[in-house]
Design a protein that fits this description.
This protein is α+β, with helices and mostly antiparallel strands and about 130 residues long. The protein has a single domain, classed as 2,3-Dihydroxybiphenyl 1,2-Dioxygenase, domain 1 (Roll). Strands 1, 2, 3, 4, 5, 6, 7, 8 and 9 form a nine-stranded mixed beta sheet that branches. β3 and β4 form a beta hairpin.
């Protein structure tokens, strides 16, 4: 069902500093910051030859990332994103297998302009999973 790894997301307390660390220290190709108000985050994507790293930081007081950073003030891996061909079929199949979809269960448009869903971390060894339709 799942396809390739689309990205690994890292929550960071200072987006500009984290982006500069990847750009300056690691020599990575770093994209521009983009606000994602529907998800309560600002993100930057780092392009790698085989995947991407997404740096994310809270956007607004109600950001779901704020709680994560309260528990992990230095930041840390927040989620893994896998590609799927049909997000609704993947959702339905996962739910019949007992996986919990977060939110309303309906896909939202993600940072790449494609439908995404998140799966409960307690169902996946403590790892929040994002599915993105390709």
């Amino acid at each position: 069902m799942i396809g390739r790894l689309n990205h690994v997301a890292i929550a960071v307390p200072d987006l500009a500093a984290a982006a500069e660390q990847y750009r300056g220290t690691l020599g990575a190709s770093v994209g521009p910051a983009q606000d994602e108000p529907d998800h309560g985050v600002t993100v930057v994507f780092i392009q790698l030859p085989n995947t991407k790293i997404e740096l994310l930081t809270p956007l607004g007081a109600d950001s779901p990332i704020r709680g994560f950073l309260d528990k992990n003030p230095s930041g840390g891996i927040h989620h893994m994103c896998y590609e799927v061909e049909d997000i609704l079929a993947a959702r339905d199949q996962l739910q019949t297998r007992g996986a919990r979809v977060l939110g309303s269960g309906e896909p939202k448009i993600g940072a790449h302009g494609k439908p995404v869903l998140f799966l409960h971390p307690k169902d996946f060894n403590g790892c929040l999973i994002e599915l993105e339709q390709i």
